[in-house]
Amino acid sequence: MANKSWELGFHLRSPRNWLNDPNGLCQFRGTYRFFYQYDHNWPAIDQKAWGQFSSPDLIHWTYEGVPIEPSIDEDRHGVFSGCAFVEKGGASDGGDLMRVYYTGNVVDLVPGHSPKDFDYVYAGREGNTITCTSEDGVNFGPKQVLLRNSDYPEECSCHVRDPKVWEQDGCRYMLLGARHKDTRGMCLLFSSDDGLNWTFMHPINSEYSFGFVWECPNIVQLDGHEYLAISPQGLPRLKDRWFNRWTPGYFELPEGQRLIDTEVIDERGFEQWDFGHDFYAPQIFSDEKGRTLLVGWMGTFDEYYTSVPDDLDWWHCITVPRVLTRRADGRILQNPVPEIEALRGESVALAHGIPLEISGRCCDLVLTDLKGEGMVTLDDSFQVLYQNGRLGIDYLDETSGAGRKGRSIPLDELHDLRILVDGSAIEIFANGGAETFASRWFGPELDHISVISTFSPAGITYPMTNTMAKMYATAQAPDLEFPGWNETINR
Q1: 320 exposure class (CB count in 10 Å sphere: 0-12, 13-18, 19+)
Q2: What is the pLDDT of residues 334-361, one digit of tens each?
Q3: Whole-angstrom Cα distance, residue 420 to residue 371?
Q4: Strands 348-350 and 459-463
Q5: Which domains does the chain have, with CATH numbers?
Q6: In degrees, to the nearest 5, what angle opens at C-alpha 274 toward C-alphas 273 and 277?
Q7: Burial of 474 by CB count in 10 Å (0-12 exposed, 13-18 middle, 19+ buried)?
Q8: How far is CA 171 from each of CA 193, 194, 246, 265, 399, rounded to the nearest angstrom?
Q9: Torsion from C-alpha of 300, 306, 309, 313, nearest 10 degrees
């Protein structure tokens, strides 16, 4: 790497090359299994497979290779995003069965036509919904195509993808993200008795156009309330929100209303998940403890923030898992899973205005009972600041931002801050997780972090154990030869 201080100690990244959407997140037979979109030859081409990590505890991880890759005609140009559904007692040994659902991408070239003959939005693309199963979470059986373009409603463009499957009231349901032919985002809702044969129920639209496509749909169920979560593209930039054109968020449904009965969403109720530069395509799942967890891609396709530092042989990571809870007013709070606190070293006081040097490039900063304005500065390079009723982040030099600039949101009062610093990944949680920022930071090449805070009262700093170094040093994603690859797939 160009700068070893950018390495990650407790965030997951691909051993090399490209990573984007988290996929197939689940806890299966007691083990957490996190899949992710993997591009084996980044930056030259764009043909996705699923890489995988596994963990017994969300802090110690094993790289499991690339278990799902293009292998049939219906996914020959990429295994795109999807989910995992755990079928209780469905395996041959009487244990649980993992069934994954994903979108098989096909860039369809008709003989006698060139790539220029298609726009790949209204013609020239297939988005097939495909399933396969595993009894051990690593080895998967034959693929089965469940839905093709002809099975989607007439009003859909070729952009239909990212299945999310869940069970409710004895029936299975599937959400698909889609793009209407009139260039507005929507979701499609299907139902099934067995998870294999699916019947279209109805679309879910916003009252007025809200982005040109909705990706990565999720259902969130908290304390008897339901939410629709989506990742819309094409939102207009506003002063205090939607800084990225690709901005994921959620809609709370009216009390007592189920998502499966919903056909129209009031887009004015959209709440943004995260205000950082690098957050997209979050996936949400429930673990065996009954917690609702969210994991997002710490990256974006937004052209303003995709600068790649020289000589970096891997790109992007995913957030630490976040526990979702519901505040009384309906807002969803996000906080790091408590398991990562096991990585904390001995605490050190962070006094007002006094520089503190922390060995290593991983730390957990906790400031509570805050009174008034202040800022936390890292290596004279990156700041978290609360001033004039606004909470924000800022890059103090052009290099460390790699295309990113400062941004802020209005906030009447700041009560607490938690800042996770992990090499080149920073996650910020404010006011009990009501406001979050996830951004990459390419700071100076140092073996420590210098921190200074002007907040009162004093905070606490914990150096964090690096649990990833050995895995990243030994795990190498294989070179894959995908059948069906050709020069047209980067579309």
Answers
A1: buried
A2: 999 999 999 999 999 999 999 999 999 9
A3: 21
A4: antiparallel
A5: 4-337 (2.115.10.20), 344-467 (2.60.120.560)
A6: 145
A7: exposed
A8: 6, 8, 32, 23, 52
A9: 50
User: How far is C-alpha 166 from the geometric centre of its chain's CA atoms?
Assistant: 19
* Longest Cα separation, the chain: 71
Residue whose pair of structure tokens reads 């259902």 in the numeric block: 219
| Burial class of residue 108 in the structure, from the number of CB atoms within 10 Å of its CB (0-12 exposed, 13-18 middle, 19+ buried) | middle
Q: b/e string for 431-452 if b means 16 or more Cβ within 10 A?
A: bebbbbbbbbbbbeeeeebbbb
Could you check whether the bond before residue 43 is cis, i.e. omega within 30 degrees of 0? yes
User: Which amino acid, 60?
Assistant: H
What are 35-51's pLDDT values in tens digits? 999 988 777 666 899 99
Percent of the chain whose predicted confidence (pLDDT) is above 90: 81
Question: In angstroms, what CA-CA distances link 288 with 58, 216, 285, 314?
Answer: 13, 23, 10, 32
Rg (CA), the chain: 22
Q: What angle do CA 67, 68, 73 make, to 5 degrees?
A: 150
Using one digit for the tens of pLDDT, what is the confidence trace for 95-135? Answer: 999 999 999 999 876 667 666 777 788 888 999 999 999 99
Q: Which two tokens stand for residue 252?
A: 């709370």
- Nearest-angstrom CA–CA distance, 219 and 216: 10
